[in-house]
Write a structure and sequence with these properties.
Chain lengths: 157, 115
């Protein structure tokens, strides 16, 4: 996280030296700072920061598309209730271990329409997920693990 | 440029209003608490944030944009927590699932309800 602070500092320097206090300029400064730091990589030692920033942006984009897609699906189901709905509660085994990982997974899962995080088991090994479209419990488990959990763990570990 | 901003504003406001309406309709249409939380919370998250973004695009001044972005962030952080809590409370107090529910793998009547 230290490198992140340096990057923010560089963005601040960029804004101050160009004299334009706008969001676009601050973002540009952050991008320039990131490039400079990336160029200086050999000096900084092993830094997961350079892997995580693009990964995080990519993940945010994917997640945004996912949210739009499933929102449309739920909305479609509201307008045409006969178009098929198979709600159910599925137990998903967790690979996430720490509080932060589980909280992030539960929050993002609840943001994705069609799935709602109900509860975590006492031993923190299982997440109970209410889904609106349970065609097959194993498909839901696989979707949660592949689409969300794997990526969150890549990002947080 | 101004026209493009106007079109973007209109689109964002329209989509936002539509999703809020669908969320409200979902509360009426859905069969049980859990499905209602699904329809109500998420459609409204998207709808309200896109209305806020529409306002941001329309005004375009830094102080308004920053507040609109903050509004979106708070929506995206708080609404899942709230809907999770409501659904969890419903499940723990033994509210029945809709008859069309296919599967329920979550055990009920657990003794850790106080934690």
């Amino acid at each position: 996280m230290n490198i992140f602070l340096i990057n923010l500092l560089l963005a601040g320097l960029w804004v101050a030296s160009t004299g334009a206090f706008t969001y676009g300029n601050a973002l540009l400064g952050y991008a320039v700072g990131f490039l400079v730091l990336w160029w200086l990589r050999p000096l900084l030692g092993r830094a997961p920061y350079f892997r995580k920033v693009p990964l995080g942006l990519w993940f945010a984009l994917l997640f945004f598309c996912e949210v739009i897609k499933s929102n449309v699906r739920v909305a479609w189901n509201v307008v045409f209730p006969w178009s098929g709905r198979r709600p159910g509660i599925v137990a998903v085994p967790l690979d996430a271990r720490t509080d932060l990982e589980i909280a992030a997974l539960a929050n993002l899962l609840t943001l994705t329409p069609g799935s709602l995080c109900l509860d975590v088991s006492e031993d923190r090994r299982t997440l109970y997920v209410h889904s609106m479209f349970v065609d097959d419990p194993d498909t839901v488990r696989k979707a949660v693990k592949d689409r969300l959990e794997r990526r969150i763990l890549l990002l947080l570990r | 440029m101004a026209e493009a901003a106007d079109i973007a504003t209109a689109l964002l406001l329209g989509v936002g209003g539509l999703f809020c309406l669908l969320g409200a309709a979902g509360i009426v249409v859905m069969p049980d608490v859990y499905n209602r939380m699904q329809a109500a919370s998420k459609a409204v998250t998207l709808g309200a944030s896109s209305i806020a973004l529409g306002a941001a695009v329309h005004f375009g001044e830094p102080e308004i944009v920053s507040r609109c972005v903050l509004v979106c962030v708070f929506f995206f952080v708080t609404i899942p927590a709230a809907s999770h809590l409501i659904a969890r409370a419903a499940h723990r107090s033994g509210l029945p699932l809709a008859p069309e529910t296919v599967i329920d793998e979550c055990p009920r009547n657990r003794d850790d309800a106080t934690s």
